[in-house]
Amino acid sequence: MLTIALVIAIAAVPLFGGSLRKLAQLRFRGTWMLVAALAVQIVLFGAEGPQTTLKTAAHFGSYLLAFAFLYRNRGVRGIWLIGLGAALNLIAITANGGIMPAAAHALATAGLPVDTVTVFENSAALPDPNLLVLGDIFALPKSIPAANVFSVGDLLIVLGAAVTIHRATGSRLVPEGQGEFGPVVRDRTFLRLWGAQIVSSLGDWVYAIAVALLLADRVDGPDAVAVLATLLVVQYVPSAVFGALFAGPLVDRRSRRTLMIAADLARAVAIASLLLAGEPDLLHFYAVALVLGIFGAIFQPALLSTVPNIVRRDRVLPAQSLIGATSHIAIVAGPAIGGFLVARYAAGTVFAVNAATFVLSALLIATVPIAGPAVRALAPGPRFADVRRGLRYVASNPLTRGIIVVLGLVSLGAATKAPLEPLYVRDVLADGALETGGRIFGLITAAWGLGMVLGSVTAPGIARRWARERLLPISIAVVGCAVLVVSRTDDFSTVLFAWLVAGWANALGNVSYETLLQERTPDEFRGRVFAAIEAVSDSAFVAGALIAVAVGAALAVQDVLAIAGGVMLIGAAAGIVLLPRPAPQEPGGASGAPPERSGALPPPPAAGPGAPQDGRPVTRNPAPRTL
């Protein structure tokens, strides 16, 4: 199957203006290591017999040889994707004692045996697999030649090989890269802010899943849904109001570093209060959610507004892409870590971990120098006068005006989808089986998160070829189409593919609108603009959830998903109509802007799109949400 994929990639080279003759110029070092690794695997999986320690050791050894080959050739374009895919496969294999776990539905789709493995095999169904999301969960139908099961890692390996081939042949399919991430990760100032965001996002999702599991275990039946819904309302409604009226002016009037540190410490105290209460009651959890919502409404606009103040203008796009990528990794890893901690340790341990992430985030941010207008207070005046000036800017500027309209439409559709997705999994994909439904829901959620990681990583290269003003409506349209496809199918493999693609498009849209606003909104208005976006997103999240409850009682869950997808497509159409034409791009960077820091010389207002998201934790909100 992998060979066929490579043949297709090679055959596509002439279609995109590449020269196959240039493949002869591609030189690899240590080819014998790759040949030896493949030979070991061919021998292992061609031989019959039970699994032994020797076979397991040889399996791991073949991966070590392959990684040695990749490291020797690390300068070749695309090799890092192959290495990432191989690493994900190795993680899954290591977690399952030397065998790649395969999902039963995938094996059945490919026409392969579904029985639990009794001999050593490359991929097999296991009775209790670990990290199944990294296993062979995708499949080609048995009606297709070379049908087989494959993993996210396999997809990355094929993608990396295709990138290597098309870059080596001069194909137009893969845009030329200039090492966008290298200069950013060598910037120590950005690394401190990025590190704060990493621990903050991971702690968010650990706490989110822990609170959900603890409350679901404490409250039975429909009351559990009501409790969790109330927790969301308590957090996001005050967050929307406070963000719109107070957070934006604060971010534009005061030191953003000080505001982020204060927000982190306030939320650390709120979480730590749960440690002092023994067994906290519901009112205590609601009070903590209120604090998290209000101070999260300060932290998020301050974080997004700070990035242009600490990196050069031509590095805003890769910097925000890295922040998005780690946020999405937290979406995948955080719930798994939270579930593990809840199962193995007391609730107080989870609360202590989350409080510690806030403190660590504050300490890292305290070391970040933020120069320029971001640390200079604006002229004194009534707070609501700042709000009115911010609203006038949003209404008069095509960038922010288009974002608000598109954001409201797409957030509404996305929030309508979110509450019904578990019901769709239970009633359609799992056929009412609760245990199976829980595993399936975890897989498709992780598929979306993995897609978002890929979207964030590939965003800089894509944005260099296509204007972000147009990438946003396209990405929204892709997500809307994916939701429509899912609403019309009961095939699990199709849903996985659709959610993987939707996650990729979701992240691409996030990076597009965030970086355009960061680059092209004057620093004096940046906090109010991002606060307004958060307020609209929070309001739409609550409104969409309420609509889903009302409509879901009258229509089938698939029909409601179709409506949600249709609303997203309307949002994409609105983006095409309302967002201004793209600004011309110049050789200096994706936006054509000079390389000075954005906080020093605010760029003039220009066109830019906005993309919403919805699947949020029940905690702070420093990371982009998912559609």
Structural notes for this entry:
- This protein is mainly α and 627 residues long.
- 68% of the residues lie in helices and 1% in strands.
- The strands form two sheets. The chain has a two-stranded parallel sheet with strand order 1-2. Strands 3-4 form a two-stranded antiparallel ribbon.
- The two termini are 32 Å apart.
- Principal-axes shape call: globular
Q: Return Rg in Å.
A: 25 Å
What is the averaged pLDDT score?
78
**Based on the structure, what is the oligomeric state of the protein chains?**
single chain
Distance between the termini: 32 Å
Succession of helices and strands: HHHHEHEEEHHHHHHHHHHHHHHHH
Fraction of residues in helices?
55-70%
Which properties best describe this structure?
627 residues; mainly alpha; two-stranded parallel ribbon; two-stranded antiparallel ribbon; 4 strands; 1% strand; globular; disordered C terminus
